[in-house]
Amino acid sequence: MDPVSMGVLVALAGGAGGEIGRQSWARLTTLVRRPAPALPDGSSTSTGEVELRALGDDPADTGSAHALSIALAVRAATDAEFREELRQWADDARAAVEAAPDVRNSVQGSTVHGPVIQAGRDVSGLTLPQSPPPPPAR
Asked: Rounded to an integer, what distance in angstroms lies between the CA atom of residue 21 and that of residue 4?
């Protein structure tokens, strides 16, 4: 199985897809929390729970997304039942992310001296530079 896309993991951890995305993240959480079977030599692999929690705590951390993707791939390689359920989850998750609207708002072309109001719901990665107001007219 191909590793789960880091983009899909980051998007879902960040709330993409609205309610469907939240349900998809909850499904992954349930899947990851299932006990992993022991390997033939008696050792075990990561369940992915630590990596999932780290990405949930910081959805923009691509390092956590990469670690989770690797943990899921390793677990899928050693657990056929998990692999099939993860494949189904990944297909559904990809569809949820792709169906999420891509909305971008921008104010360009002039200097704004006053409030700018834009309606929104889930906002992330927002940076508002502060500049001093213009001097009073004489």
From this structure: 15
